[in-house]
Amino acid sequence: MYRINYLEEIMIKQLLANFVLCFCVVFVLAQSQSVRAQNATTTIGPEALWQPGMQGLQDIRDKCGSAPDFGKCFAAQMREQGASPAAVAFTNLTGNTGIMRDFRDTGRVDVAYVYYPFRANENQGALLVNGSPRAIDVDDTSLLPQNEPAKNRRYAELVKKYPNVAVFPGERSGTDYPVAEQLPGGGQRFVVSYRLLNGCHACEQVGTVNYAFDFDTTGRFLGAKFQTID
After folding, report:
1. CA-CA distances (angstroms) from residue 187 to 14, 45, 113, 220, 222?
2. How far apart are CA 121 and CA 110, in angstroms?
3. 189-220: b or e for each residue (b if 16 or more CB lie within 10 Å)?
4. For residue 51, what is the DSSP state?
């Protein structure tokens, strides 16, 4: 019977080690490519912009006005009109109610500006995107701490004078908002302004309140904080 000598045993072990090393390298590269591909499909950027024009929006209104699911029809019509997959995916992210009208790169977390063409009011807004969670609507008032303004003397004076004062979205046209700042340690802060109105959407504006949306260095949302009242 043939017996493997010492040198042959060493060579076999070396070949096996090389095979395992090559397998590990290929596996790591495949995983890295998979992560890059996933990031490419999940990162929100300017490729999601869509500008259908007034006629395009009117066509959607005509075709989807009587649809059982307006939002689903809206997204389908976007595809028919040539909107990119990224644009449709962004609309899906808004609950099939909005389209990206502009984009601002601000670092780890970015700002996506939204146009809601079929809303009766508040047709423009902004999402803080690419952090965790993936998108935060700055006009989601449930994120704003409700008890902090009450500690502010100016706010107490307003409430005394205007008992029905309420928070409404601020000016949302353009791309100058929110103010983006760097936090100590590398985090990000976005300062967002809201109108204080005397009870209703069409009522008198009696002030402005500012809140800060803070993120850590990884893009994790840390919460919204009351800042100032003007």
Report:
1. 48, 20, 21, 9, 10
2. 25
3. bbbbbbbbbbeeeeeeebbebbbbbbbbeebe
4. -
DSSP label of 151: G
Dihedral of alpha carbons 114, 210, 105, 173, sign: positive
What the block records as the tokens of 167 is 């928070």
Task: Output the six-digit token pair for 114.
Answer: 């939204």
Which two tokens mark 59? 């066509």
Burial of 32 (0-12, 13-18, 19+ CB in 10 A): exposed
| Angle made by CA atoms 118, 176, 134, in degrees to the nearest 5 | 65
Which candidate, 65, 173, 188, places its Cα nearest to that of 128? 188
pTM for this entry: 0.79
E strand spans, the chain = 99-104, 110-115, 124-129, 135-137, 166-169, 179-182, 188-197, 205-215, 221-229
pLDDT along the chain (230 residues), means of 10: 55 60 43 40 90 94 94 96 97 96 97 95 95 96 87 90 93 95 95 94 93 97 94
